[in-house]
Amino acid sequence: MIDIHKLKAFVAVVEESNISRAAVRLNMQQPPLTRMIKSLENELSTDLLKRLPRGVEVTEAGKALYQEALTILAHAQAIPKRVQNISMGLEGQINIGFTNSVGLHPFLPALLRNFREAFSAVSIQLEEDGSSSLIDSIINDKNDIVFLRKPAPIGFGLVSLHVLDEPLIVALPNNHPLANQTDAIHILDLETYDFVLYRRLAGQDLFDNILASCYQAGFSPKIVQEAPRLTSSLNLIAAGIGLSIVPASIRDFWNKQIVYKDLKAEIPSIAPIYAVYKHNDHNIRLAHVLNLLK
Questions:
Q1: Which of the listed residues 72, 87, 102 is the one where a domain comes to its end?
Q2: Which of 40, 202, 220, 247 is the most exposed place for a label (fewest CB within 10 A)?
Q3: Domain shared by 27 and 106, yes or no
Q4: How many CB atoms lie within 10 A of CB 52?
Q5: How many domains does the chain have?
């Protein structure tokens, strides 16, 4: 391994074309500098400099070493700053997970935009998955933070931070009997109609939330079809297969052949969003995300 001090000395000699001037630049005596250059040539088994009556001239091998040395020295000089930046959370990578329905809410892109503006050197790795898989990803340290429709289960040492409550609304085919109703639709008025829902395995939290709203109103919804993704369910609604209860943010995402109505119930129907993470005082990038959520 080549000593970085020898590389620095060699660069000075090449740039000064004179060992005496290079010694002054390096604030050292000429004989030790001469020995360093000779040692470097011995290590590489080649002449790096041609000795001239009034200075030195770099050889072809020396030119190649000079270019490599500049790169190595620049990298070495940048290391302390980079290490410091990483320790302060200003560089590195943040891993963020979210369920499909959370990914459709405008709060998430706004959060990512604000984070990018504040910490432009931090890479953001995103993962969309079901809530169970995302919980596992936090437990196994694959993600730093995930956004779900329900808090984390108890007993895993995870922290759940309530971010917001999103109203649930009704999504209807535009030819549905309730589509022309001007007022909010009471949840009990949906009892006799066919439902299309986002599949439980993919969106367990939202699925359970919708069912709970129906059960609280006193009925079990008649589910005629489930969709693999929330956006897929909109295609089925637009096709007239059934209606659904969806987060209000969907209203701005899709309105072709679909009518959205406010939902009325004795117990307000909401779809909350929680940030779930593992408490870690050393994860500075996570702390930056949490600060943006405040």
A1: 87
A2: 220
A3: no
A4: 10
A5: 3
pLDDT value of position 238: 93
pTM as predicted? 0.74
Are residue 260 and residue 172 in the same domain, yes or no?
Answer: yes
Measure the CA–CA gap between 56 and 40, rounded to whole angstroms.
15
| DSSP state string for 71-114 | HHHHHHHHHHHHHHHHHTTSSEEEEEEE-HHHHTSTHHHHHHHH
Minimal CA–CA distance to 164: which of 234, 245, 248, 96? 248
The neighbour count for residue 207, using CB atoms within 10 Å, is 19
Residues 283 and 157 in one domain: yes
- How far are the Cα atoms of 61, 71, 72, 214 from residue 269, in angstroms, in the given order? 75, 61, 61, 9
Q: Is the dihedral of CA 198, 127, 273, 134 positive or negative?
A: positive
- Are 82 and 126 part of one and the same domain? no
Q: Which domain holds residue 203?
A: 165-270
Q: Which of 173, 157, 162 is nearest to 254 (CA)?
A: 173
CB 153 within 8 A of CB 204: no
| CATH number of the structural domain spanning residue 135 | 3.40.190.10
Pairing of strands 222-227, 194-198: parallel
Given 54, 87, 120, which residue is the final one in a domain?
87
Q: How many CB atoms lie within 10 A of CB 153?
A: 13
Q: What is the largest CA-CA distance in the chain?
A: 103
Burial per residue of 12-35, b for 16 or more beta-carbon CB atoms within 10 angstroms, e otherwise: bbbebebbeebbeebeeeeeebbe
